[in-house]
Amino acid sequence: MNGAAPGPGELPAGDFSAWMDDTLLALRGERPADVPCGECTACCRSSQFVHIGPDETDALAHIPSALLFAAPRLPTGHVLMGYDRDGRCPMLVDDRCSIYEHRPRTCRTYDCRVFPAAGVFPDDDPSKAAIAQRARRWRFDEGSDDARVRHAAVHAAARFVERHHTELPAEAAPVTTTQLAVAAVVLHDLFLWVEPASGGTALVEPAVEAVRLRLRR
């Protein structure tokens, strides 16, 4: 999308560069994601485990302890909340989050626009069909050169990680499509080069070691 209005059935995802700036802040925990969900609860109905850190005392106080279990491979105090037999979050009541003002950080930063941003979708997981369907409707505004090149860099990062997956650190290499999309956003600046004289930006391919180091952070 290059500044044109979304077509029938499409959803305006906003300016890509602005979305990237906000998303990077959200991923660093500096602000919640601002997602125009409307009535959509796809992410709450897609068999997703919700990670909750030990510092999230407000969220933990509003979730029954019986719904939580220790998060594998994470330090003591990190827990996960599962889902019911229909894949629904137990905090989803009458199609509304019953603890919205107290929801975990995972929920506050989740944004399904990350899939079209990276050009990857959770199509191989039937339980994520509602998320994939919603994600495919988003259309970003790429009306500036900065937006276009940054979007291309996120796509390039996703493809790079897929190609070099076995060369990346096992503890940090993306396993799920969601992790791949988020990693592409986090890594995208490694795929950009700014020409000193003109200030113009172009795509480059970094060394695998540079990507390894970023993922280990």
Q: How are the secondary structure elements laid out?
A:
Blueprint: E1 11-15, H1 16-27, E2 50-52, H2 57-61, E3 68-70, E4 79-81, E5 92-93, E6 96-97, H3 105-109, H4 114-118, H5 129-135, E7 138-141, H6 145-163, H7 177-187, E8 192-194, E9 201-203, H8 208-216
Structure explained in plain terms:
This protein is α+β, with helices and mostly antiparallel strands and 217 residues long. It folds into two domains: 11-23 and 142-216, no CATH class; 36-110, no CATH class. It has eight helices and nine strands. The protein has helices at residues 16-27, 57-61, 105-109, 114-118, 129-135, 145-163, 177-187, 208-216; strands at residues 11-15, 50-52, 68-70, 79-81, 92-93, 96-97, 138-141, 192-194, 201-203. A three-stranded antiparallel β-sheet has the order 2-4-3. Helix 1 (16-27) crosses helix 6 and helix 6 crosses helix 7. The longest helix is centred in the C-terminal third of the chain and has 19 residues, at 145-163. The chain starts with 10 loop residues before the first strand and ends with a helix. The model has no long low-confidence stretch (mean pLDDT 92).
